[in-house]
Recover the amino acids of this structure.
C-alpha cells in the first residue's frame, strides 16, 4: 500500500495545470475511470487531498493504482476526447450509455422502382434511411400520407425494366383499388421516380414545397378543364395541410433546430432530441444514461447532445435546451426554452 501511495504522490506532483483528460487504472492495468478538467493538476489532486462524502468516490479512489493524462488545447477538446474514451473503454465508474430499443426509420430502396416502408433494420447497401423516429405515431403519419398522395408500390416483388418488358408480373388488387399505379406492367412509369422524389422531400420535412407544387398542379388542371383531376389534387392538398398541422413547430424561431429535453429518475437520465427542419419534426431519438458517480446534469446534457447529434447526423447550428450544458461547440447558437 505504501509503494502505491508513493507512486501516486509522485504522479500527482508531475501533472500540469493544463486542460486535458485523465485516466485512472486499477492494479490489473484496467481503465476504471476517465475524466476531463480545465486544470488537470487541481482536478486530479482533489481526489486524493480531501475526504469524500460519496461512497462511490471513496471506492473509486481506493482502487486507483496508476494515473495517465493527456494535455489538450481547450476544454472543448478535453470534452470530445473524454467522451470518445468512455465509449471505447466503458470504465466501470463512468456513466453508462445504455443501448435503447431501436426506433423505426423510413427506407427508400435502391431499386429501379423503389419501395418506401417503415423498418427497424438498417442496411445502407440496399436503401437510404430517414429517421429514426422516437414517436411511433409520427412515422405512421408520414407513411400514411405518402401512400395517400402517391400510388407507389408496396409489394416485395422484384420489378425492373426487363421484367416489365417481358411481362413477368401482373397487376394485383391494389391497382384495381387505385392504391398502386401498376408499375409492374409499366403503368405510370414516367411519373414513378417523380413521385419517389416528392415523397423523399416530404420525409425530409419539405412539406411546404410539396404543397406549392400541388397548388400549381391544381391550377393547371382546372385551366385545362380537367376538373376531376383538379378535385383529386385539392384533396391531396387538404391531406397535406392536415399533416402539417400535426407536425409543424409553431415557434417561428425553430425553422431549423435541434430541440433537447432532459429528465432523470434516481440514477437514470433520459435525454431526448427532436430534429426540426423547415419547421417540421423530421427525426427524434431518446438515449438513457446510467449514473455511476455524482455527474452533474449540465455534464450529462452536453454528452447527450453530442451523442444524439452524431447518431442523427445533424449539423444544424441552432440548438434549444432546457438549461445551458457544461460544454458545447462554440459554433452552435444555444437557446434556452
Amino acid at each position: 500500500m505504501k509503494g502505491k501511495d508513493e507512486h501516486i504522490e509522485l504522479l500527482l506532483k508531475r501533472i500540469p495545470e493544463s486542460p486535458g483528460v485523465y485516466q485512472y487504472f486499477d492494479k490489473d492495468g484496467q481503465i476504471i475511470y476517465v475524466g476531463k478538467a480545465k486544470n488537470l493538476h487541481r482536478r486530479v489532486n482533489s481526489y486524493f487531498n480531501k475526504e469524500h462524502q460519496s461512497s462511490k468516490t471513496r471506492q473509486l479512489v481506493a482502487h486507483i493504482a496508476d494515473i495517465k493524462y493527456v494535455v489538450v488545447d481547450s476544454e472543448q477538446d478535453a470534452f470530445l476526447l473524454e467522451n470518445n474514451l468512455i465509449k471505447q473503454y466503458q470504465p466501470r465508474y463512468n456513466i453508462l450509455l445504455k443501448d435503447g430499443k431501436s426506433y423505426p426509420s423510413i427506407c427508400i430502396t435502391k431499386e429501379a422502382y423503389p419501395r418506401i416502408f417503415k423498418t427497424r433494420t438498417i442496411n445502407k447497401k440496399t436503401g437510404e434511411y430517414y429517421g429514426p423516429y422516437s414517436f411511433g405515431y409520427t412515422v405512421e403519419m408520414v407513411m400514411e400520407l405518402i401512400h395517400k398522395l402517391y400510388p407507389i408500390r408496396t409489394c416485395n416483388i422484384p420489378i425492373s425494366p426487363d421484367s416489365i418488358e417481358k411481362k413477368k408480373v401482373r397487376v394485383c388488387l391494389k391497382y384495381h383499388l387505385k392504391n398502386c399505379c401498376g408499375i409492374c406492367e409499366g403503368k405510370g412509369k414516367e411519373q414513378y421516380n417523380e413521385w419517389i422524389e416528392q415523397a423523399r422531400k416530404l420525409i425530409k420535412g419539405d412539406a411546404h414545397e410539396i404543397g406549392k407544387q400541388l397548388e400549381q398542379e391544381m391550377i393547371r388542371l382546372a385551366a385545362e378543364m380537367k376538373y376531376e383531376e383538379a378535385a383529386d389534387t385539392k384533396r391531396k392538398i387538404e391531406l397535406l395541410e392536415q399533416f402539417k398541422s400535426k407536425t409543424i413547430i409553431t415557434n417561428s424561431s425553430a425553422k431549423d433546430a435541434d430541440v433537447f429535453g432532459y429528465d432523470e429518475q434516481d440514477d437514470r437520465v433520459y435525454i431526448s432530441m427532436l430534429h426540426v427542419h423547415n419547421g417540421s419534426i423530421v427525426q427524434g431519438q431518446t438515449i438513457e444514461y446510467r449514473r455511476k458517480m455524482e455527474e452533474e446534469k449540465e455534464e450529462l446534457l452536453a454528452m447527450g447532445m453530442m451523442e444524439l447529434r452524431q447518431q442523427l447526423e445533424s449539423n444544424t447550428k441552432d440548438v434549444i435546451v432546457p438549461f445551458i450544458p457544461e460544454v458545447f461547440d462554440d459554433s452552435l447558437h444555444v437557446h434556452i426554452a
The two ends are 51 Å apart (CA to CA).
